[in-house]
Amino acid sequence: MSMSARLPVRTEEQAREWSLVLISQGIESALEQDSESGTWYLALDPDHFSKACHVLRLYVIENRNRRWQSPVAWAGEVFDWRVWFWALLMGVMFWLDRVLPADLSNAGRVDGVAVTEGQVWRLFTATTLHGDEGHLLMNLASGVLLLGLAMGAFGPGAALLGSLLAGALGNVATLVVHGRDHLSLGASGAVMGALGLLAAQSLVAVAAWPWRQRLVRGLGGALLLTVLIGLNPSSDVVAHLGGLVGGLLLGLVLTVWQRRSPASLVRWDPWLAYLCGIFLATAWALALLKNAP
Predict the structure, then answer these.
(1) Contact indicator for 161, 194 with CB cutoff of 8 Å
(2) 277: Cβ–Cβ under 8 A, 6 or more apart, which residues?
(3) Is residue 19 a contact partner of residue 7, using CB atoms and an 8 Å limit?
(4) Residues 27 and 146 grouped into a single domain
(5) Do 78 and 164 share a structural domain?
(6) N or C: which end of the chain has fewer CB within 10 A?
């Protein structure tokens, strides 16, 4: 095999590490060092050079994510610490709602009349608002855990976008049940959406379990947690259940995607994170413009 294409690397250790990565994908390489500069290279077949660069790019992205992740050994799960950026956003939005002249709660909450008149962005903005400190702390306590695990399972972008969409679906459900006069806000639907994502992965991804065991552990665990943290009589139960069902459906899509093409999900995850940010930024821009004095 001719190896005339060379890929520069920082150190001999990195060259050996990347060589093993390429071997695992059926791409042969050889370590070379420039005698004058001391630079290390991976020598590759020119026909495999593009594929090798693609494989290594995905490997670098995956390992960049792992710096933020910690395995939860007793549960066989991975926790992504970047969930604290979501928690920070929730805290900042709560603070801004208290200090800004603009009434963010009025502009961004789910208002049945306003939504049916076209202000659909409220389905998204409401997931970043909270009524009081207790409401905020309750959603942060459960959200950091569930969303952190979902981010570890699917990637931060996929989990954040999935939970946001699930929260919006939960808000749709509550309007269908309660009607046009309903008002609500809170991240609990999105938090339950994260729970739905995890339940969907349990149902599909653990192929070694018998289907009854997967059903009991996945749905049973999700329903138990729903009862514990989502069926408070003072909370919006319909939004919680709608978010859970939305998360289950979206989680099934993500799990199938992950099983069929894990590299593709890794590659698209940053773009899903950007899309989530665009959704929220656009929704809030529309909300503030609509409610500008």
Answers:
(1) no
(2) none
(3) no
(4) no
(5) yes
(6) C
* Helical H segments across the chain, by residue range: 12-24, 49-66, 83-99, 104-108, 112-116, 122-125, 133-154, 156-178, 188-205, 211-215, 221-225, 237-260, 262-290
Tell me: do 121 and 237 sit in the same domain: yes
Same domain, 81 and 209: yes
Q: How wide is the angle at C-alpha 172 spanned by C-alphas 169 and 174, nearest 5°?
A: 115
User: Tokens for 125?
Assistant: 């903005």
Low-confidence ranges of the chain (pLDDT < 70): 1-3, 61-66, 69, 71-76, 205-235, 293
Are residue 80 and residue 97 in the same domain, yes or no?
yes
How many domains does one find in the chain?
Answer: 2
The tens digit of pLDDT for each residue in 74-83 reads 556 788 999 9
What DSSP character marks residue 229?
Answer: I
Sign of the C-alpha dihedral, residues 119, 124, 125, 131?
positive
Residues 36, 141: one domain? no
| DSSP one-letter string for 214-228 | HHIIIIIHHHHHIII
**How many Cβ atoms are within 10 Å of 132's Cβ, its own excluded?**
8
Q: Extract the tokens encoding 291.
A: 């409610």
Place of tokens 């909270």: 130
Alpha carbon of residue 150 to chain centroid: 6
pLDDT at 249: 95
| Tokens read off for 30 | 């050889």
Identify the domain boundary among 29, 49, 65. 65
Identify the CA nearest to 273 among candidates 130, 153, 161, 107. 161
Domain of residue 145, CATH code: 1.20.1540.10
Instruction: Summarize pLDDT for 197-248 with one digit per residue, the tens.
Output: 988 887 775 555 555 555 555 555 566 565 545 555 556 788 888 999 999 9
Domain extent for 220? 70-290
Query: Any bridge partners for residue 70, and if so which?
Result: 79
